[in-house]
Write a structure and sequence with these properties.
single chain; about 425 residues; alpha/beta; 4-stranded mixed β-sheet; 24 strands; binds uridine-diphosphate-2(N-acetylglucosaminyl) butyric acid
Length: about 425
Amino acid sequence: MDKIRIVGGKKLRGRVEISGAKNAALPAMAATLLTPETVLLENIPYVRDILTTRTLLESIGVNAEVPGNGTGSFKAADVGALEAPYELVKTMRASILVLGPMLARFKKARVSLPGGCAIGSRPINLHLQGLEKMGAKCDVAHGYVEASTAGLHGAYIQFETVTVTGTENLMMAAVLANGETVLDNAACEPEVENLADMLRAMGAKIEGAGTRTIRIRGVKKLKGCRHRIIPDRIEAGTFAIAAAITRGDVEVADCNPKHLSSVLSQLSLVGVEISMGETGFHVRGHGGISSKNMTTYPYPAFPTDMQAQYMALMTQGDGTAIITETIFENRFMHALELIRMGADIKVEGRQATVRGGCPLMGANVQASDLRASASLILAGLAAKGETIIDRVYHLDRGYARIEEKMAGLGAEIERIS
Ligand code: EPU
């Protein structure tokens, strides 16, 4: 199993190019099931979750090509098994995204229930309730959701909690349903908007994506399209913190700074110098870091997917910061590993109190999930001596060539087998 070795203490300098967003590419790949025509997706990141989704689509009968770099091609003309098996779903919960499209186009689907997850219980009740309101029958048996419908129809659906993949799943179901669907309290993440752009290019009628209310008027069929995946705002934010924590000077290029305005304004607040551009931004971390509280919320607020990385930064703050996680109930696993590196963090329920000013020391640590892995890399970059991060398969799920990109900025980092 691969590990990442870092020798900390180098200031990162230079320019890094951001890859396409995993969390935009995953629903886009699922949406290719909605048409028998060819769909081309540009800027797909070459990460493990994308390859898992390719395998899933292939097992359903989609002709899917995902080259190492660039544009993927998908054709769902001869779809056979309308099933997402446990073996794939257990490694990637986003597999649930095929449920809505399969039900909409083929009127049935069998998708394994996602099991436990390192960051929280992550139920899919809101996906199922919404589909049932649209005329689907969803039974849960033997660990699978067995869903069928005589034909989906429009419905008014108000989410009791903001759910990103729930919004995406129901939007994909609604585009081929009979009549109008309104999704209220919908997620407004840029990834949802990017999916709506793709669906519109396929011929769907959608208004309001990117706001809390999305209106979808179903159409009879959808066509192929060419669509570009947005840049990964979480990868961009991770590199911004890498520059800040090493007191470096980094240009984060090929991204949309507007998608991470909450992260960048929080970084400015803690004393990091940020200059904004149209398609990138510049981070200079020459001063000290002030400790500031932060609470995660759905977009446009500070994202839960940047919480672990922010915690790494706060270990280097000048005071105490309280970090509150409101999205997932168990997303502080990285705290225990950061403590092993010398950090002073106390976790109580959904709050972590981080006392800054403790020098980090290299150590052997274990990644517990994707963003936790990123936070350990950041801590390793700032730590004195050598850090070895185990279980980096979590990292490989969502970061494209992160060690190469970090090394390109001058970090002493390598992958070891
Ligand atoms: N929830 C329910 N019922 C549901 C669905 C969600 O109670 O049916 C709850 C969840 O338990 C959670 C909250 O709603 O407490 C929000 O979860 P959400 O459904 O928004 O999460 P998700 O769609 O499963 C996506 C991203 C995550 C990201 C979250 C929050 C993808 C593929 N995944 O997950 O990304 O953390 O939104 O922004 O888009 C990551 O990339 O590391 C990652 C975990």
